[in-house]
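User: Hey, my collaborator sent me this sequence without any context and asked if I could get a structure. I don't really work with proteins. Can you help?
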Amino acid sequence: MRKLLIFFIILLLSSCALPEISPTQPLPSQDFPTALPAATNTLPPTETLETTEAVITPKATEAATSTPAPETSPGIILFIGDGMGTIQRQAATWLGLGENGVLAMDAMPVRGSAITSSANNEVTDSAAASTALATGQLTNNQFLGVNSQKELLVTILELAQNQGWSVGLVTTTQLTHATPAAFAVHHPSRDDTLIIARQMMEKQVDVLLGGGEDDFFSRGEDGCFTGNGRQPKGADLVALAIGEGYSYVCSAEQLAALEPSQTNRVLGLFAGGGMESPYSPTLSEMTQTAIDILSQDPDGFFLMVEGGQIDWAGHDRDAEKIIQDTLSLDAAVTIGQTYALGHPETLVIVTADHETGGMKLNKDGAGSLLQDGPFLMPDGTAFWVDWNLIKGHTSQLIPVTAQGPFSENLSGEFPLTKIFETMTLMLFSH
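Assistant: No problem. I've predicted the 3D structure and written it out in structure-token form, which is a compact way to encode the shape of the chain:
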């Protein structure tokens, strides 16, 4: 039966014709529920932190109360901690909850480990890894939504759109950065962010929230943040989005003021480049708003949420920010889990694209000259964060946790591509 189901999925994938995309053609006219303990290295407040007993519930709005999504409406929420390996999760647990604590993402009933190698390198980059997650196919480093021969691949976001589902992308990096881009774009270079922005807006993604304002405004135009737009004159993607019915917001206050029942599409750009800490809006707030809007679709929704700067902090060997951003992502995961409690036809997956930094932990301070610390657990126990001598990504297995329909498919050890397979099983079961 399983082989037959996969056969039909392959037939469906092969029949999904994508529009011909011309890369150069312009478009036509957190609140983690724990107070962080004091430590020798004091963490910057990236999110609003509360007590461990606090229960995070979805943002109360009149729209959410008066027009809740049907409980049978299906959904897929994919959380990606860019660069978040096993030790990144462990360090966040130790500082936020103690040695015996459990993050929300680690409390999920299904746990597995994913192999992250790309088609042309044992050590992947975010573009190839996210393409594997989005399409179920390995590709070369730097490639987005295309295989190693530069042929277009169908993404889970596009398949969801073909099924009539609403779709969204949320990140703390630029929306044009590799991870979100791989779900909506087909291009052999992750560095061509102006092309990526144009393709992303062509894709008509319902909810787009993150940084990267400069990639969407045209040259000489000011947005809400320092720095001018980079698109060619006359190719203002923000103006185009507004003309096509998007609500445009650039602050936490404007995002909070949106009425989900009256908002079908939203473009939120909250920084010229990557969002700055402390994030405003928080990743949790962006996740909540995205769910509030997308879940109104009775056919279903797909949402990808990225804690994108865990990776950046790993490249910088900045343990404080890694821990803070992992806790920030965990708070957003709690928002997804809370929604899923009332909507059992929701598949929730937490993964990474790769590990960054080769992090290690010790409790005796006997690490290398590269180590950071001490950090203090809630009970006062000290620990230190140490690093691999080689800076950058590693080929370590990354943890995957999941709950909801078909989540059992993600136990054991498997390639990243199996996450796409699991999401398609969920998608085509409705």
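In plain terms: The CA atoms of residues 57 and 338 lie 6 Å apart. You can pass these tokens on to your collaborator as they are.
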